[in-house]
Structures are given as structure tokens and as C-alpha cells.
Design a protein that fits this description.
363 residues, mainly alpha, 3 strands, three-stranded antiparallel β-sheet, 3% strand
Amino acid sequence: MEYRPHYLLSIQGCKGKTMARYVVKRIGLAFMTAFIILSLTFILVKLLPFERPIGGDAQQMAYFDNQYNLGYVYRLEYETQEYGECLYKTPKDHGRSKYYYQVPIMTQYVHWLKNIVTKWDWGYSKTFQPNVSAAVIIGSRIGYSIRLNIISVIFSVPIGILLGIWAALKKNTMTDHTISTLVMIFISIPSFVLISFIVRMFCYNLGWLPSAWPTASASTAVKIQGYIIPVFCLSFGSICGYCRFTRAELCEVMESDYLLLARTKGLTRRQAIIRHAMKNAMVPIFPSILAEFLSILGGSMILEQLYSIPGIGKLFVLALNYKDYDILFVDMAIFTTLGLLAGILLDLSYGFIDPRIRMGAKK
């Protein structure tokens, strides 16, 4: 059994406690940030003019009854001016009508928080899928976006890093100049321009790939082909970004003093690069994978809309167009949570990759 001095165990225990406190603190700050963002989103959206849902009387009655159950509207059996303009008046039932009036915004806010905490009820769709739970709609679509973005990261990370390493090892040669020039050109091309060109070329002119996201009844081969265009367009900018970032980091490390010292001690150039340069250059690169995943997820909104991908990115755009605010709140909550979670994991990953980095430690 390996013997460890008591002072070493106490130091390691202190580091573990410091890291645990830092993680708890970051999670608490992330929760507060998400709470503030979603609260402001709810209040500001509710300040917009109210628009009645599209549909017949049965659909509108069901929608306003759901809003009444959530605490967002009053339901009265008489007409009044106390609560402002009447939002909806039902057809007469046994000689009587029901009148719906909007509850004050801050009261709606309190009910909104209560519904989420106690019942996990985020509301119902108004026009996109009338009277269907917003959480159910998001849950049925989030898999498309997550799967598409994971595949894009899997392709873009190794290709971009390998190209960056190749350019750094061939620094100031024709290979390096060619890769760097192509990266600067291609990184400037927006994804919506790229997908428009690819769809026109490979779908309409050549007919090799489907021009839109395959339906659920399509064959397995067609479904696989449907991933080619969006994955390539999402990966394109990431490959260029990783190539440029990796080349810059590796070139800086290769010119450092400790690498020159390693060479003077007898290591060959290849050994010094593999043992020292690569290891230190990857410290800031690997944690950026999480940030890259998040940026791809946010950038896929336009691409999902153009290629008719039924993901949460397209749903976010549709919710804005349809003014379907309950769906917008859930979509916003997902993007906010993913962004804050990625930030926490990004900070923690530095400590795991490089043990010299201790997050949250005091000087």
C-alpha cells in the first residue's frame, strides 16, 4: 500500500473542497442568470399587444380556458371595463356568454413561476399546434437539433485540428499559405449562402441529394443523405475556426523557450512537438469544443429553416412569426440553459486537462 504523508492528503482535500465550492457557486450563479433572463423575457413579451389565436370557436375557447387555468386571464360571465379590453367572448350557451380579460402582467408572472415550479407547466401553443403543451412540442423536436449538432461537432473537430497541425508544422511554406488563405476565404461565407449554393448545385442541378429534410416515411438511405448537406454546412465554419485556432496556438508553443530547451537536451523536433508542444497547445483547444457545440446550435436556426429541419431552431423562428409566446419561452429556456451549462463545463474542463489550473482557488 502506497504511503502518503498527512500534509499531502490535507492539501488534496483542501483542493477538492475548493473545487466543490467553486462548482456549487457557479451552478448557483447560472441558476440566477437563467432566472433573470427568463423573467425579463416573460415580462417583455407579455408587454407586447395581445393577438387572438387562429382557429374556430372550439379551439379559441379551449385556448382561453387553458389560459384561465394557468392564471393568465380572468373568466367572467358579464362584460366589464375594469380589466381593459375583452380578449374573447364565447358564443352564447343557454343564453349566456363568457368573457375573458387579461390578468395584470406581474400577476401572470407569479402564476407562471408557480406553474413551472409546482406542475412543470410551461403553457400551451396558441397557433402553431393549438392547445398542445409547449413542453411536449419542444420535446418532440429537440432530438433533431441535438443529433444534427453532435454529428457536426464529431466531423468538424478532428478535421479542423488536423488541418491546423499540418499548417503549423509547415509554417511559412506553400502548404501553410494555401491552407491559411482558404480558411480566411471560407470562414467569411455565411452558412445560409453556402447551403443555398449546395442545394442548387447538388439537389436541383445534379439531383444527388434531397432538396429538403426527408419525411418520416422516407427510406433509410434517403434519411442518411438528408444529413449530408446540413452537417457539411454546420461543420464548414467550425473546421475553418479550429484550423486557424490550432495553427495559432501550436505556432506560439513551438516558438517558446521551454521547447527550445527540450531540443537542447537531445530531443528531436518530432519528439519535442509530440511530448511538449502538442500537449500544451491542446489545453485551450479542447475546452472550446463545448463552446463550439453551443455556437453551432445557435447558428442552426437559419439552416433548419432553410432546409426544413423540424428542430428547435426552426421552431424558435416559427414561434416568433406566429407570436406563439409559450413555445418561445420554452425554446428560450433551452438555449439559455445550454449556454450556461456549456460555460460551467468549459471552465471546469481547464482544471481536468491541465492539473496546474485550479478553478476557484485563492492566491
